[in-house]
Amino acid sequence: MGTDSGVGPHGENLGELQLMADRGMSVEDVWHATTLSAARLLRVDDELGSLQPGKRADVVVLDGDAADLSGLAGRVREVWVDGEQVVAGGRVADPAA
After folding, report:
1. Which of 2, 7, 32, 85 would suit a FRET pair with 48, their CA atoms being 20 to 30 Å apart?
2. Nearest CA among 67, 63, 59 for reference residue 83
3. Distances in Å between the alpha carbon of 26 and those of 17, 19, 38, 45, 90?
4. What confidence tens digit (pLDDT) does each residue in 2-48 have?
5. How many angstroms separate the Cα of 56 from the Cα of each of 30, 31, 39, 85, 86?
6. Across the strands, what pairs with 91?
7. Bridge partners for 30 per DSSP
8. What is the pLDDT of residue 63?
């Protein structure tokens, strides 16, 4: 999931998840391809790609059903990078707060 090849406008890559499902992948396989499989391909799965003790805590929390891949960008509730919350309530978190 994701590319730097310029096949679509920057920031719209979340739409790729629905495209994968539309082409026959199960929702579980889509999420796996987007997380752990991608980390394995990049050889960074020792620190990224799944929620496990000792790994970096990069997490996106969505509103709604994880099986619904439509409108993902508008459903982002929280984003955590390296265990620090950087988006809260859909807005960039204030680091001074």
Report:
1. 7
2. 59
3. 10, 11, 16, 22, 27
4. 666 666 777 778 888 999 999 999 999 999 999 999 999 999 999 99
5. 21, 18, 12, 13, 14
6. 88
7. none
8. 93
* pTM of structure: 0.80
How many Cβ atoms sit within 10 Å of the Cβ of residue 78? 16
Residue 2 DSSP label: -
Contacts of 50 (CB under 8 A, 6+ apart): 35, 36, 39
3-state SS track over 9-59: CCCCCCHHHHHHHHCCCCHHHHHHHHCHHHHHHCCCCCCCCCCCCCCCCCE
Question: How many C-beta atoms surround the C-beta of residue 16 within 10 A?
Answer: 19
The two tokens of residue 10 are 């920057």
Q: State how far the Cα of 90 lies from the Cα of 97, in Å rounded to an integer.
A: 16
